[in-house]
Design goal:
heterodimer, A: mainly alpha, 11 helices, B: mainly alpha, 9 helices, about 80% helix
């Protein structure tokens, strides 16, 4: 009974404006645009702060500050100030996705083995080459964790953005609540939950693909599961990493949901 | 904005109190559940992966989706605060179980062996050696969970039970910014206060960390 809307074939037609596939695409659109803009801002900034260690205060605390900001409040505030439409929603989503990416990029670059950087310099690599060729690849696990966090955050907040007139799957939830059509609400909730899980899985696969096997420890002797380990000594760094990331940066896999 | 505060003082206060209550109860429940689960996850290694997978999936579900799905699963009204509390407990558990498990794993093996050698039984060793050492990492996870919860409670306003989120919805409906700004400021202040409280608790529980070098 509750699944009426979800299983109704008419709602899955691509051509109908309010149909589920269209809403999914809108939702993905919001997510993609916001995360890409946030990446464009936060990745270089985080890399710079991590590499030179200037402005570390900002990078460490921005994750906590970003988490403390109520996402719903930010979205409603921007819409009230700017007006209805896509722009305030995208701005809010960008602002919300910058902290995890920035903080994780910074932490990732700080966690790079100084020995490796030293060896790279000793080999004669220029600073840019050291940054791009050595530090960033070694920081990849944490950077990818930050990206996953950001994507999750944005998918969840984009759902809420429907409250202020945005599109996306939240539309089903909000409209369903307003008109009392609970099956529509369930449809929206199930679709967005599945979407979030699928995106998580995709990003985990992406992480597997991008992170070099040497860094993830997949090929080290007696190493742990690839996604856990960082660096050449998995068991040692696992303990160190959980304290490191958990204390200085409790963001890696644990960032805010919305 | 200040006239708004003067005129609606009671509403704001009610919203704030409801918000605090809705944020704290899930945390307390989660702590009670997460400690045994985290211990089990360390004791039986395969359980760690199972919990990670399970809680990872639950954590991915957007909050609003969980808020609206739970009533039909639990059989409560959508307006009931139980809804929000159970959903937030799930999210907090997802963070805390992993945090507790990681914290317990990070305790140095040699310390555990020394404790056993000195004569600690398993249970006492857990309470008097492992837990105290693991406390900083656990409280770090708790800080994240608390701050996230405070932000998540306001989302509940969309389905009617939202603490400070009520100020957000009202501001949006009136297209009037001051309630929203007040709500954001109070929410951030709550987050900071709770964060500081947990840091103070941490300093109390780990006196050895404060010893001057």
């Amino acid at each position: 009974m509750y699944f009426k809307y979800l299983f109704n074939g008419a709602n899955w037609h691509f051509d109908k404006p309010g149909s589920i596939p269209n809403l999914i695409l809108q939702h993905l659109g919001y997510t993609g645009v916001s995360v890409l803009i946030a990446m464009a801002i936060a990745l270089p900034l985080g890399a710079y702060i991590g590499h030179t260690n200037k402005g570390a205060f900002l990078a460490i605390n921005i994750a906590n500050a970003g988490r403390a900001l109520p996402t719903f409040g930010l979205v409603t505030l921007l819409v009230t100030l700017i007006g209805l439409g896509t722009l305030p929603v995208v701005i809010a989503l960008v602002v919300l996705s910058i902290p995890p990416i920035l903080a994780n990029t910074y932490a990732g670059l700080r966690a790079v083995e100084p020995g490796a950087v030293d060896a790279a310099r000793g080999m004669g690599m220029r600073p840019t080459r050291v940054l791009l060729g050595v530090e960033v690849p070694m920081a990849m696990p944490l950077i990818m964790a930050g990206l996953r966090s950001a994507v999750l955050q944005v998918v969840a907040t984009a759902t809420i953005a429907a409250y202020v007139g945005g599109g996306g799957i939240g539309r089903l939830l909000i409209d369903g609540l307003s008109i009392g059509d609970y099956s529509r609400v369930v449809a929206g909730a199930v679709v967005v939950a599945v979407l979030a899980i699928v995106l998580e899985v995709l990003m985990t696969l992406l992480e597997r693909a991008i992170v070099s096997p040497g860094v993830s420890g997949r090929f080290s002797v007696g190493g742990r599961n690839g996604a856990e380990a960082v660096g050449p000594d998995p068991s040692d760094l696992l303990g160190e990493r959980s304290t490191h990331t958990a204390e200085r940066l409790p963001a890696a896999h644990q960032d805010a949901n919305t | 904005m200040f006239t708004y505060i003067q005129n609606n003082y009671q509403t704001i206060l009610d919203a704030l109190i409801q918000h605090i209550w809705l944020a704290i109860v899930p945390i307390l429940i989660s702590i009670i559940i997460a400690l045994p689960l985290g211990y089990l996850a360390v004791r039986y290694g395969w359980l760690y992966q199972v919990f990670n997978a399970l809680f990872g999936i639950l954590y991915s579900i957007p909050s609003l989706a969980l808020f609206v799905l739970l009533p039909s699963l639990l059989g409560v009204q959508i307006l009931s605060p139980i809804n929000i509390i159970v959903a937030l407990t799930i999210y907090t558990l997802a963070l805390l179980v992993r945090s507790v498990a990681d914290a317990l794993r990070s305790v140095d093996e040699t310390v555990l062996q020394a404790a056993t050698a000195v004569g600690y039984t398993r249970g006492r060793r857990f309470l008097e050696v492992e837990l105290p050492i693991a406390v900083p990492v656990m409280l770090a996870g708790l800080r994240v969970a608390t701050v996230s919860n405070i932000s998540l409670v306001s989302v509940g306003a969309i389905i009617g039970t939202g603490g400070l989120g009520f100020l957000f919805t009202r501001g949006f409906q009136l297209f009037y910014a001051p309630p929203i700004i007040i709500g954001i400021i109070l929410s951030v202040m709550l987050a900071i206060i709770f964060d500081v409280i947990i840091v103070l608790i941490q300093r109390q529980l780990t006196p050895w960390a404060r010893v001057a070098r």
